[in-house]
Amino acid sequence: MDAREEELKCPVCVEPFTDPVRLPCGHNFCQTCIQVVWNMDDPETSREGPLFCPECQILLPPDLELEISADLQRKVQDAFARAPLLEESSQMSPSIITCDQCIGKTEVAVKSCLTCDASLCSAHTLLHQQREALRWHSLIEVTEDLISFKCKEHGEELKLFCQEDQIAVCCLCIAVGSHKNHQAVTLQEACTEFKKVLKTNKSLLLQRKHLAKSALQDLEPLFSEVLKNAEAYRVRIVEKYSQIKAHIEEDQKLMLAILETEEIYTNKWLRWRSESLKCHVKEINAVLKSSQTLLEAENDVRFLQHFKKHGIGSQSNKFGPRNSTP
Questions:
Q1: CATH 3.30.40.10 fits 3-147, yes or no
Q2: Model-level pTM?
Q3: Dihedral angle over CA of 187, 191, 197, 202, nearest 10
């Protein structure tokens, strides 16, 4: 926001001037704001003290008459393109809280008074702070929910904190109500104590956060170290098992070669043995045939001659059990 727009705002309500008036000292104010400051907004209330400028504190004539500055009002309207306040009020968002003390005009509330059960604009807030009778009222941030700041049992302002039940209570609760004889402190004291606890917890949490972040920083190099070590072990494992695989393959080739040699030798021996047995069977068949012929001979002389000649009797021992190896 530029300086020109700031100059067109009332120093009391900090809003664009509404019905601006200029004091003899040269300072400008909203007509309503300066009347509230001077306690002139309520005809039934007598003004206390002399007139003065809220900005420079200069004393002003008691019979001073306020006149609206048409020129300044026009500048404000041109700068802010502001419609009359009554029209603006009809279009105002329902979420905006207005001042309950302003009569005939609508001003945005900036504070709420628990004592008055009312919301106040900047000017009426300033009045609360300046007037002795209103100075001790409890002002809070503007809210529509004033009832939540009051005791549900007695309707009084919550000013104390019951330490036994850990709840905000009013003075009547401690004096005659359900919290009678309970230990109580003011809300400010309770808040101060709880804030101390909160600050202590916050300090502990910050320490834990620092330790956690420090631990995280310590973990960072471990990630790369684990990756590096894992890669080194991976290479060693691959090399080791590659060597084992090579030895196994070499042993496999050797065993297969030995097996192949044994197979060739065994097959050769089996073939020799088969041929040998076949010849043996053939020889036996020949002898059996000759023996059968002799057995069928009827002449004893010829039988004996032929038996002796061919040595059939001695050949029977020839076909006895043979060695299984060549």
A1: yes
A2: 0.40
A3: 160
